[in-house]
Amino acid sequence: MRLFNLKSLLAIGLLLTVSPAIFAQKKTVSNIWPAEKANAWYAQHKWINGANFSPSTAINQLEMWQAETFDPATIDRELGYAERIGFNAMRVFLHSVVWKEDPRGFKSRISKYLAIADKHHIQTIFVFFDDCWNPNARPGKQPDPKPGIHNSGWMQDPGRPLTTEADFAALKVYVDDILTTFKHDKRILLWDLYNEPGNGDKNKIASRLLPKVFAWAHAVNPDQPVSSGMWDWNLEALNKVQLKNSDVITYHCYDSPELHQRVVQLLKINNRPVICTEYMARPRNSTFENTMPMLKKENVGAINWGFVSGKTNTIYAWDTPMPDGAEPKVWFHDIFRKDGQPYKQEEVDLIKKLNDK
């Protein structure tokens, strides 16, 4: 959730000026895609666009995936809204705690989700790890939403400190199992290995985990590309790991379209496909109207945060809680109400137009 400024853009430029040397270095793993393979993969797809998706009935990743609260009816209905406006990709977060409690059941529910998404002509970007919001996820009943507070129940993964090699070994088994099970599944577009590594106070964990998860993924060598999105240009060491090891380049940007376009132009220097996996925060001048057409023109994938207003409370801003739970005058994220009515009809009309619907 990083906003860009001139200093940030200079940092990106410095990072990218050394990127040819980074890519010229001998790889520790041989399965990182050459740029030619990545571009050929990208050329096989229509312009990639969609949203980060959690059904409106789930406060977090655990409530989405646990057997007791997995809600295929809502998933089906809400992915129908996505199909209606031409979205062809959704970014969806997994969670290792759900896998640890019930590996077989978790994978079965992933398969059910993929079948529903495929019915609606939607491919999925699955996210493994995440350094955002609340630590120490626990299985079972999840907390109720706190009125007016953005993502009040969202869970980091892993949220606990990683202190021993056994901790990493357990996460490796999880990643290996999911990737091996679904490595040939054409319904999966991309594996996003780690969301916003280093967010909050997680820099020490991320600096150890991020290189490992890339190595695990490249060792499995799935048919789908792997990536981790750059989001904070001050985290230079993590950015270099992401840039060096991603098959396609992904990033987050919630800034104005002028700065956002400069970020795109700098990232495209690497001659690899570029996908924005988070954007669109209306009060911060990142909107569908001013950003999505630019991303299509640049042939950059466009995955906004938020889809149907629900238990995640992402109609509220990150840093502006509304404890009375009243609806904000301007929604921060999200496109639809639960009944399928759009928050702004003109936004939906634009998205449909860009998708030739």
Automatic annotation (TrEMBL):
One GO molecular-function entry: hydrolase activity, acting on glycosyl bonds
Protein species of origin: Mucilaginibacter xinganensis
Protein known as: 1,4--xylanase A
Species classification: Bacteria, Pseudomonadati, Bacteroidota, Sphingobacteriia, Sphingobacteriales
Segment forming the signal sequence: 1-23
Keywords, alphabetical: Carbohydrate metabolism, Glycosidase, Hydrolase, Polysaccharide degradation, Signal, Xylan degradation
Gene Ontology biological process: xylan catabolic process
Region (Disordered), start-end ranges: 138-157
